Amino acid sequence: MKKIITLIAAAAMSFSLFGLDIFNYVQINGNVKNYTQIDYDIGSKFGNLTRTPVLKTITTLDNSGRAIDITELSARDAVLSKITSKYDVYGNLTEQFAYDADSKLLWRNVNTYNNGQKADVSEYDKNGLLRAKTIFQYADGKLADETGYDGDGALLWKIIYKYNSAGKLSDVFEYSADGSLDVQETYTYSDDGRIDSLLTYDAFSGETERQVFRYASNGTLSEITTYDSTKQVTNRIIIKYDAGGNVSKVSEYNVAQKFGSTVNELIAMSEYTYQ
């Protein structure tokens, strides 16, 4: 799990019930101007599953498919928060602004670039005070090192990236400020270059889990299955698509032994529509 920059974490602006952004793994097809994600709370009543909408997120895209506005709304369509993004003439993200329900600034991020590569991200609070800074370093044109500091320049964390012979990301090492390993991720790929599995080691808990990515016959991602260190299935994420080839539903299930059998228990759901 990639470390989150401090102000975004403090603002608690999360746009997924699943802890992952599905659009890191699938693309948006067609001339989409915006898409809406509705997250549901899953419950049970008299033995029957119920779902209640709890959060709506509307993402507006520019003509190049880049997110320029992300707005969170309640189930009753009341605005909760908003993030706006700006890009330069080269398509690089240069600034982000986060606002609360009353349109008051929460934080501002400023990105700088060197030869087209992101050099650093500076995070400012609502009063313009520098709260954190992330510095990026590269090797052979690929991101090699990402280091986070607080506003006074003290080291917070470091991430080191490694790549395989095909140039694809193979390992991510996340370290705490004292140099101790926090999380290690190892990626494998299929012969056609699609992500096949993600192995995650959490140094704090000492536990390892593996996520296996499964694809339909047309090549679209259809399921992400999580296995624990004993190779038992613990979680499944199922992805469905609409007629245009865009994600329409993502459902998450916990897999456990209950009442003497293996149960796939729905715990979260998101639905997507596009315009």
Structure description:
With 275 residues, the chain is mainly β. 2% of the residues lie in helices and 63% in strands. The radius of gyration is 20 Å and the shape is globular. The protein starts with 5 loop residues before the first helix and ends with a strand. Mean pLDDT is 93; it is low at 4-17.
Please summarize what this structure is.
By secondary structure, this protein is mainly β. It has one helix at residues 6-11, and strands at 34-45, 48-61, 67-73, 79-87, 93-100, 105-114, 117-125, 130-139, 142-150, 155-163, 169-176, 181-189, 195-202, 207-215, 221-227, 233-241, 247-258, 261-274.
Keyword list:
275 residues, mainly beta, 18-stranded antiparallel β-barrel, 1 helix
Radius of gyration: 20 Å
Can you count the helices? 1
State mean pLDDT (0 to 100 scale).
Answer: 93
- Low-confidence sequence ranges: 4-17
Q: Determine the strand fraction and express it as a percent band.
A: over 45%
Shape: globular
Along the chain, the helix and strand elements come as HEEEEEEEEEEEEEEEEEE
Helix content: under 10%
Largest sheet: 18 strands, antiparallel, barrel
Main structural class: mainly beta
| Structure summary, number of beta strands | 18
**How far apart are the termini?**
31 Å
Mind sketching the topology for me?
Layout: H1 6-11, E1 34-45, E2 48-61, E3 67-73, E4 79-87, E5 93-100, E6 105-114, E7 117-125, E8 130-139, E9 142-150, E10 155-163, E11 169-176, E12 181-189, E13 195-202, E14 207-215, E15 221-227, E16 233-241, E17 247-258, E18 261-274
Antiparallel strand pairs: 1-2, 1-18, 2-3, 3-4, 4-5, 5-6, 6-7, 7-8, 8-9, 9-10, 10-11, 11-12, 12-13, 13-14, 14-15, 15-16, 16-17, 17-18
